[in-house]
Specification:
This protein is of the alpha+beta class. It is 19% helix and 38% strand. The protein is built from two helices and nine strands; from the N terminus they run H-H-E-E-E-E-E-E-E-E-E. The N and C termini lie far apart (50 Å).
Length: 124
C-alpha cells in the first residue's frame, strides 16, 4: 500500500471512530448478547415448580400459566423485587427478571397463601 493510501485509510478510520461507528467485533466485545432462559411455572393449587434455582447474574424469564379460577392465585408478587403481576386464567404471563445477586427471593400470591422461592446460587 502506498503512503497516500495508508494516510487515507487512517483518516477514514479516524472519521468512523469520531462519528461513533463501531466495528462489528468491537460491538460484540462491548455488548455480549445473552438470551434469557425461560422457566414455566404452572399455577394450580400452588406453584409448580415452587422452587427454582438459577445462577448469580443469569437472565431469566418466568412464564406463569394459571390453570385454576381461585381468586387467591389471580396475582403473583415478588416482594423483594417490587414486582406484582396479574395472572389471568389460561393466559401465559412472562416476567423478565433482572440479573440477581446470590440469595433467596420469595414469590407468592396476593393473599400470601401460595408460596414459591427463587434461589440464586453464586457462580462457581
Amino acid at each position: 500500500m502506498s503512503i497516500i493510501g495508508s494516510i487515507l485509510s487512517a483518516a477514514g478510520l479516524s472519521f468512523l471512530v469520531a462519528a461513533g461507528v463501531t466495528l462489528a467485533a468491537d460491538a460484540r466485545a462491548d455488548t455480549p448478547h445473552h438470551e434469557a432462559r425461560e422457566i414455566e411455572i404452572v399455577v394450580q393449587a400452588g406453584y409448580s415448580p415452587n422452587r427454582i434455582e438459577i445462577t448469580d447474574g443469569e437472565r431469566v424469564a418466568l412464564r406463569f400459566i394459571r390453570k385454576e379460577s381461585s381468586g387467591c392465585s389471580r396475582e403473583v408478587v415478588f416482594p423483594a423485587l417490587g414486582i406484582r403481576k396479574e395472572l389471568p386464567q389460561g393466559t401465559p404471563v412472562v416476567i423478565q427478571l433482572p440479573a440477581l445477586k446470590a440469595g433467596e427471593y420469595e414469590f407468592k400470591c396476593g393473599m400470601d397463601m401460595l408460596r414459591g422461592k427463587l434461589v440464586v446460587r453464586p457462580r462457581a
